[in-house]
Design a protein that fits this description.
- With 359 residues, the chain is α/β, with parallel strands linked by helices.
- It folds into 2 domains: 8-58, DNA polymerase, domain 1, CATH 1.10.150.530; 64-343, Aldolase class I (TIM Barrel, Alpha-Beta Barrel).
- Helices cover 33% and strands 20% of the residues.
- It contains 12 helices and 14 strands.
- The chain has helices at 13-19, 23-34, 49-58, 131-134, 143-156, 179-190, 210-219, 234-240, 249-258, 281-290, 316-328, 349-358; strands at residues 65-71, 77-82, 88-97, 100-101, 107-109, 112-116, 120-122, 137-140, 166-169, 202-206, 224-228, 267-273, 296-302, 332-335.
- Strand 9, helix 6 and strand 10 form a beta-alpha-beta unit.
- The two termini are 23 Å apart.
- Belongs to the radical SAM superfamily. RlmN family.
Length: 359
C-alpha cells in the first residue's frame, strides 16, 4: 500500500505496550478504541496532547470509511467500506433474533446480532457462483482492517462494547488464504480489555484449504470452523470451486477429522443449494454417506441470484425435501433464513453495484 499508515487496531495490547509508554496509557487508548469507538486521536481526551500528536504522525485510529450501506426490511445492513488505499470491501450486520419483551413491555432478551466480515479484497478461489470472484484478487486485508469492520459496524449501530456479538469470517475472500492476519485479528477480538469476543463466538468459514485447516487447528484459537462444501462429488465441486483440484473432498474431510473441536459443538458444513445442480435426493443421500462419523451440522443455503449468473435459486419444496432426508438419516440440518434478500444480498454485489454507479 502507498501513502498509508498502520492502524492502532493492527496491534494486540501486548504489542501496543512495546510501542506506547507508559503502560497505563495503553489501557486508556484501548478503552477509546474498543469501548468508545474513537474515530480520531482528538477524541482521546484523557491522553496528553503531545502523545496524541506523536501517535497521529505514525498511525491512524480506524482505517475504514463507510462508502455505502443498504438496509433491509429484516434488519440486515450491508456495508461497503473503503480503506486508506481506496480499495473497498463488504461487511454485513445481521440481525439474528428480535428483542423479546414480557407482558409489561420490559426487555427480557435483547436482539442478537452477527457480523459477517471480509478477509481479502477480492478472492483467489474463483468459485463459479460467487460475484466476488468475478473481480479477481487484489490483496489481503491487514489484521487491523479485519478488526476495524467489527468496530465500525458496532459503532454505526450504537452496539455497546460489552453486548455479545458473533463473528463469521464469511465475507469477501478466503480467510485461510490470509491465515496470519486472520489469526491475529481473532486474538485481538478476544482481548479481555477490548471487545472480549471469545473464540466460541467466532466462526471461520473456508472453501476448504485442507492444509490450512490443519494449520488453523494447531493454533488452538478456540474458534469454530465451517466448511463450504456445496457438492458431494469432486466433479461438481471442481466446477463450483476450481480449487477443489488441489484440495479435494476427501482431503477436506480428513482435515476436519483432525481439527480440534469442542466436544459440545459440531462442524458446520455449508451447502449452497443451486437449482438443478445439487438439490436432488441423490445428492442428499451422498451427503449423508460423506459425513458419516463426523459430528456435523449441515446448513442449507439458498443461492441468491445476481445479474449475469448462470445459476438459479432452488424451490422451497426442494429445499425442504432435501433437509427432511438429511434429518431422517441422522444429520442435524437447518435451512438458513435468507437475510437481506431485498438488498444486494450476494457477496460482492454491493461493491459491484456501487463501483458501477461511480464509473
Amino acid at each position: 500500500m502507498t501513502n498509508t499508515k498502520p492502524s492502532l487496531l493492527d496491534f494486540t495490547k501486548k504489542e501496543l505496550q512495546t510501542l506506547i509508554k507508559p503502560g497505563f496509557r495503553v489501557n486508556q487508548i484501548f478503552g477509546w478504541l474498543y469501548h468508545q469507538y474513537a474515530e480520531s486521536f482528538d477524541d482521546m481526551k484523557n491522553v496528553p496532547k503531545a502523545l496524541r500528536e506523536e501517535l497521529a504522525e505514525k498511525y491512524v485510529v480506524n482505517p475504514l470509511t463507510i462508502v455505502n450501506k443498504e438496509v433491509s426490511t429484516d434488519g440486515t445492513i450491508k456495508y461497503l467500506l473503503q480503506m486508506q488505499d481506496g480499495k473497498t470491501m463488504e461487511a454485513v450486520w445481521l440481525k439474528m433474533k428480535d428483542t423479546q419483551l414480557d407482558e409489561n413491555a420490559e426487555v427480557i432478551q435483547e436482539a442478537k446480532y452477527t457480523i459477517c466480515v471480509s478477509t481479502q479484497v477480492g478472492c483467489k478461489v474463483g468459485c463459479s457462483f460467487c460475484l466476488t470472484a468475478k473481480g479477481g484478487f487484489t490483496r489481503d486485508l491487514t489484521a487491523g482492517e479485519i478488526v476495524a469492520q467489527v468496530v465500525t459496524l458496532k459503532c454505526d449501530n450504537d452496539h455497546k462494547h460489552n453486548r455479545k456479538i458473533n463473528i463469521v469470517y464469511m465475507g469477501m475472500g478466503e480467510p485461510l488464504d490470509n491465515l496470519d492476519n486472520l489469526a491475529k485479528a481473532i486474538e485481538i477480538f478476544k482481548e479481555d480489555d477490548g471487545l472480549c469476543i471469545s473464540g466460541k463466538r467466532q466462526t471461520v468459514s473456508t472453501s476448504g484449504l485442507s492444509n490450512k485447516i490443519d494449520q488453523l487447528g494447531k493454533m488452538d484459537l478456540g474458534v469454530h470452523i465451517a466448511i463450504s462444501l456445496h457438492a458431494v462429488d469432486d466433479e461438481l465441486r471442481t466446477e463450483l470451486i476450481p480449487m477443489n483440484k488441489a484440495h479435494n473432498i476427501n482431503s477436506i474431510i480428513e482435515a476436519v477429522k483432525r481439527f480440534p473441536i469442542d466436544t459440545r459443538k459440531r462442524v458446520m458444513f455449508e451447502y449452497l443449494v443451486i437449482k438443478g445442480k445439487n438439490d436432488d435426493l441423490g445428492s442428499a443421500k451422498k451427503l449423508v454417506k460423506l459425513l458419516h462419523g463426523i459430528k456435523a451440522k449441515v446448513n442449507l443455503i439458498y443461492f441468491n441470484p445476481y445479474p449475469g449468473t448462470d445459476y438459479d435459486r432452488p424451490s422451497k419444496e426442494d429445499m425442504v425435501t432435501f433437509a427432511d432426508y438429511l434429518i431422517k438419516h441422522g444429520l442435524l440440518c437447518t435451512i438458513r433464513d435468507s437475510k437481506g434478500i431485498d438488498i444486494s444480498a450476494a457477496c460482492g454485489q454491493l461493491k459491484e453495484k456501487t463501483e458501477g454507479e461511480i464509473q
